[in-house]
Amino acid sequence: MQEKEIKFLEDSFKKYYFDHFDLIHVPERTSEREFGFQKFNSGMIRHISLKDNKELHLLLMQNIPSDVYCSNAYYSFPNLPMNEKDWKEADLIFDIDAKDLHLDCRPNHSVTKCNECNQVSTSHDHCSQCNSIKIETKSLPCKNCIEASKKEVFKLSNILIDDLAVDKNNIQVYFSGNEGFHVYVYNSQLQELGSRERSDLVDYIMFRGAIPETFGMKKLKPNRSLFPEFEEKGWRGRFSKEIFSSKSKRSKIISELISNGYSNFNKKLQDISTKIGSQIDPNVTMDIHRIFRLPGSLNSKSGLTKIYCQDLQKFDPYTESSFLNENTVEIKANCPIEFKLKSKKFGPFSDEIATVPTFAAVYMICKNLATIS
Amino acid sequence: MITLGKDEIAKYPFLADAGQYLKDKGFTLEQFGIDPDLKISLEKAFSRVQVSADGKIYKSDLIDGEASKDYVLEREVFSFLLAIVLLKLTGMNTLIKRFALAEARRAEKYLEKDLANITDESKKELAIRIIDDLFSIQIKKQDDDFIIPISNYLKHSVNFHEREWKLINRRVGNGFVYLTSHETVRLIRKELSSYINSKIINAKTPSMIAGFEDPVNQLISLSKKFVTYTVTTGEYPPCIKHAIEVLEKGENLPHSGRFMLATFLLARNQSVEQIAPLFKNAPDYNERVTLYQLNHLAGASGSGTQYSCPSCEKLKTQNLCFAIPECDNIFNPLQFGKKRK
């Protein structure tokens, strides 16, 4: 990114931070958290400790960061190097990102930008101009992606509430500011779990590593009575609802499963994993030292805000998370796909000068699909 | 501190204060080396260690955890305490480890029986208390099941590599994991054995006692057969091969994959300069950043922490595992191709 664009983004971000202090708060137990931030075109600065909102707002105004982060962990000394921080516990966090869901709609709203010749195109495996494979994929807003991500969040919260006994009020869902959702779980029995334990929890939530025996199928002499019932708790119950679909079909389907044999059953378990498991990013949940995007801050991949979802079902990120101003600005846009922000349509732009509101200009510049003209 | 009855000390001798027990019974260690009546206990102690070295569990004289005569109970406890003395005198850690594991498995049988005891509530309570005191697992009985909080379960189950211990393969509901008495006790085997192990390691080593020389020497020669040699083929495991292929094709390898590859190669003694060119084809390659990150992993910058290669279990979760039969149930990619001889 060139200086002109950085200046424009910094001005826009600064105005947002100044006008919207009400949206950006330090989390509870502030002094036990580690904060960090990045500036445009620059590396990460972390191991920062803050006392209160005032200090946070000062940091934002002084540094105009492109991204702001805060640890899910609680430390005795959050500002010391990692191995001296004295880790106490960490909130359970989840990242659900549409790009990990491998949806059919992706090619329709993704463009690639070549790192060698800067060509923007809708070709997905190589540059259409110079054939280089060093390309970056940029995705633009898509309703389908958001709805699919929401579905994963609902699957996740069902598992959290029913199986892990997490209190509904201790689950908070945020739009990530780009293409997915961040879920926080506070005050659960899982706070003190380390990374290895969280890794097994991830497999549980994603329905991975299941063996046929758990669901009643044995290698030798299968026994009908071992197959799960509809009313059972946890995965056995969910599995039977998925596989048998109704109580009346249970018996017939068990016979089929037994006659298809053990290895087919095993394959079935793997096949339904993405359907019934919640597709979370394993690395985020396993990481107990992560600094995670701060709620209320802007996402430099889009200029949208990471914002709390009061009613996830109705939530529309591309109207409810765009807080940058409407002042128009002239840009040179190279964005071959149409997109919608704040209920307005933009594009497609084919390497052309366009006058658009700041929020849309920031969006395209953040995606590296426009420059200040 | 749990107060134990006579038969309970015999079942769970590792809970007793060894020195105090001998004193209370009015014996000194020296007597066991010379007194022909007491020597039986020393012989039993020797066989207790010997049996454990073979990977078997010592067969005690107790029947259902009880004995008809008090001296049988005492001999059980003495033989355990003397076994520790023998182990300390041999100073062989492999023997101590094997002994601790065998004793843990022996205690496991009694714990399981006590836990499932429906006629004597106090026995069940004691087993529950032992498990809570030693390993902070709060067990509750619910119908035919034993239920423990998920967080308690995970802290112990992660030590197992078998898939049936994964949370996904357990009955889970309302924040609890449902287990049988057998599974509950099995869950703590490793911890029980490390508890016994650490008790032995932390015990004071006495100076040689007359009459103990022979069994000690026999045990030292016995432990020599456990020395193993390993040979390495030098071939890369499939996960590493896959990561290299992805990079060679110029495709994007996720951060976790790059971390695995770099830490693996660093552990195989490759230098940062040898590793860096592998990342050259990555879509977002930046030489300065790559070198910085590699140096960081190698511990040459930052806090000086040397990062180690992730376990196979972790790589499975991260979708980076491409196991083949040759992996042979290894726990870490670094073990690939190493054969014990």
Give a quick set of tags describing it.
A: 373 residues; alpha+beta; DNA primase, PRIM domain; 2 domains; 4-stranded antiparallel sheet; 20 strands; 23% strand; B: 341 residues; 3 domains; two-stranded antiparallel ribbon; 16 helices; 6% strand; globular
Helix and strand arrangement:
The complex is a heterodimer of chains A (373) and B (341).
Chain A: H1 3-19, E1 35-38, E2 44-48, H2 53-63, E3 67-71, E4 73-75, E5 87-90, E6 92-97, E7 110-114, E8 120-121, E9 135-139, H3 143-162, E10 171-175, E11 180-185, H4 195-206, H5 234-244, H6 250-260, H7 262-276, H8 282-286, E12 291-293, E13 298-299, E14 304-305, E15 307-308, H9 317-320, E16 328-335, E17 339-341, E18 344-346, E19 349-357, H10 358-366, E20 370-372
Antiparallel strand pairs in A: 1-2, 1-3, 3-12, 4-5, 6-11, 7-8, 7-9, 10-11, 10-15, 13-14, 16-19, 16-20, 17-18
Chain B: H1 6-11, H2 18-25, H3 29-34, H4 39-53, H5 70-90, H6 93-115, H7 121-135, E1 140-142, E2 145-149, H8 150-157, E3 171-173, E4 176-179, H9 181-187, H10 189-202, H11 213-223, E5 230-232, H12 238-248, H13 255-267, H14 272-275, H15 287-298, H16 312-317, E6 338-340
Antiparallel strand pairs in B: 1-2, 2-4, 3-4, 5-6
